[in-house]
Description:
2 domains
Amino acid sequence: MQMKSAYLQWLTVLALVLGFTVSRSVSAQPAPPPDPASAPAGNPSASETALGELIVTGHKEDKLPRIAILPSLSADIEDVIVRSVVRRDIELTGMFELIPDNKAPMGLYSFDDAVDVPAWQNLGAEAIVKVAARPHGSKAEVFGLAYFLNVGKDPVYSKKITVDKADVRVTAHRITDALLGALTGRPGGFASQLAFAARWTKNQRIFRLDADGQGLEPLTDPSDFAVAPMWGPNGSLFFESSHDYQPFQLFELQGKAITPVKLSFTTSIYAVAFSKDYSKMAVAVAEGGKSSIYVGLADGSGMTKASTSTELATHPVFSPTGKLAWIGGDPTHGSQRVYVDGKAVSPAGFGASGPTFCDTEDGVKLVYSVGVGNDRRDLVMSDDQGRGMARLTQGQGSNTYPACSPDGRLLAFFSTRKSQPGIYMMSLKRYTTQLLTSKIGESLRWAALPPAK
Length: 453
């Protein structure tokens, strides 16, 4: 019974942070923690004009650079994987018009065949990409080549490498990132992975996903209730988990090994965050029927309280410049706002959740979800001080838990839109949106993979 009381206390505190009412009944299985994305909108009289205008771009009439990705006639699985991954990645950027394969000129497209640049130029290609792969003994040989026709006849990118066959897929993502760097001056962010929490039968587990929506994999024990994943140093994954109604503890997943993280706190840990250089750790902790944000060193030592301006605080996240954001509120009013370094920056009257920072070409942006009534939530974006507010979604269901790509070009988020619920990816250059996968969950996080060895 003591374990159930501890679990119920965790639910009660988190419910206060998010404005929920929690039932006192406890079933045989742990009750799911309330979803922050379902928090009330706040003041129903608050005007949505405070959220800024909806950004509308990416219309069909917008002129995009035409890019050709050479077809392949090879039956080698390595070649099929590399080309399909690169093409999908470039499609997801929303930055180019891809010439269809059925428009490809007659010619040779094997691994060693030269690129017929004039033939593709006649089709209006402004950039030409060739990617190919073939088995090489127990390994695979991977080749990438790109021409940007406005800058001359020589390739802007050319690389041939040999990798383990198991690494062909991630190598294709790394080639995409390098190609984008050659074509745009800013490397891509597809050599990365997402993590989120989602229901699995009666409990909730942590899942990982490749940046192109492939490779969905459950990571945690189905008998535990796991929440709030966060990527840490060296590609490790941190999350909080409860077993048999015990307080939520912090765990680290490195490879296939899950180990508890020793902290000085004896109460439930709600969430964790790391600074960009992984030198600092922030944790949301249950504290006397409330919750607080503490910040210390990455090993959990030297923790000091950061959230002194609110009685309840959760969902910490660091900006690329070292600022710390969290969701703060009070149990009296049951509302929550985004705080950055202790100052409220989201508009009053709108229940906020899931803040993240995006290091875009136009500077660091703060993105989060706000309640707009009728069980709907929209994404808004501002600078890291709350200025220059703009809406990213409107009238398309409930949109929650934004996560930004490592290169700052793309935003992933959950959406319940009627056309197809799932994880969507939005271009932060053109603001077009594409479905990534139909999986729905919470606490979406996105981080680069460790560098190739």
